[in-house]
Amino acid sequence: LGDVYKRQILIGIILQARVITILSVIPIISLMNDDFSSYERLWNQTKNIAMLQSLINILQLLLYPQVKFLTITSENMRFGSIRIGFGGALITIALLMTFSELMKQVNKKNLAYFLVYMFYILFVRKTRMVIFGVIISILVVFFFSLRKKSGWKKAFLLGLCFLLVSPFVAPRISELFNLTQHEVSTNSGNYVARTGEVEFYTSQVKKPLFGRGFISPKTSGGEKFDTKFGYYNITDIGITALYVINGVVGLIWFIILMLIILVRVKKTEYSIFAMEYLIYSIATCVTLLSCYYESEGLIITLVLLASPKLGEVYMEDGVEYGSKTSLPNL
């Protein structure tokens, strides 16, 4: 790699910082457990900010091309309209959060939030892997809830809502499926781009245990390792990119992260959301790795890992949060 690696070791450590971010869980657990209400505030603020961003993106879609107030390119099209991804990771997380609340209690506000988020993902962002991950995680949690007697009533209400919107959603799902089938059968579009990216980046790995390291395109000689044809992007190949940059060590890090979330799924106040997020992360890791490449995903991952255990008691201003028989309401 020549002069690409000729830099101070401290800079290299800083650029690899995300590999060791899991270590920051220790102080986060300590800080967040001292103030349980901080979880509730973060939860509600995340939903509200995501709702605002969804509405802004939807408005831009409706006004385009007559009015442009977001930075978008006319080439980013799918199904005859532009794709807008601003805040997409946060909105996806908020969708999973809102659905987890609907699984506890069906109410008009959360149902409205959920429908707006889903509209954005299906008709504005239009990213197939995101849609696939969301649907898989929701369906698993939905059917898992049927094991409980109380889950049938909620499942019936949610099922009725899905039935009402299915005439609008089904055509889009069909379009996405047909597009994927066409790209695979003709070796074109995103399919050929992803397979090309995998071949291009994995060929750069000379030491599988630690990967090739992070190579900035701004470093002398680094651009030829960063992209090809002007559109190759290492973040498009998900967990494979983690191997390319961090090697087998990076893959072990990802497995440990998923296992920790799995262990804590039944021990947090947000257990339904934790399960959704775990399923979503695994289902989309082939091309996406939100808990690594997107700051929103990384933050939420750490919050999940730091979430208080059920049955523990927290006191704030004389108010008891959490006990073996009573949990704080969101």
Could you explain the architecture of this structure?
The protein has 13 helices and four strands. With 330 residues, it is mainly alpha-helical. A two-stranded antiparallel ribbon has the order 1-2. Helix 2 crosses helix 13 (295-306), helix 4 (88-104) runs antiparallel to helix 5 (108-125) and helix 6 (128-144) crosses helix 11. The longest helix is centred in the middle third of the chain and has 36 residues, at 151-186. The protein is globular and about 60 Å long. The N and C termini lie far apart (52 Å).
Furnish the topology, listing elements before pairings:
Blueprint (H helix, E strand, L loop, with lengths): L8 H7 L9 H9 L3 H27 L13 E2 L2 E2 L5 H17 L3 H18 L2 H17 L6 H36 L2 H14 L20 H4 L11 H27 L6 H13 L6 H4 L1 H12 L7 E3 L2 E3 L9
Antiparallel strand pairs: 1-2, 3-4
Helix pairs in contact: 2-13, 3-4, 3-5, 4-5, 4-6, 4-11, 6-11, 10-11
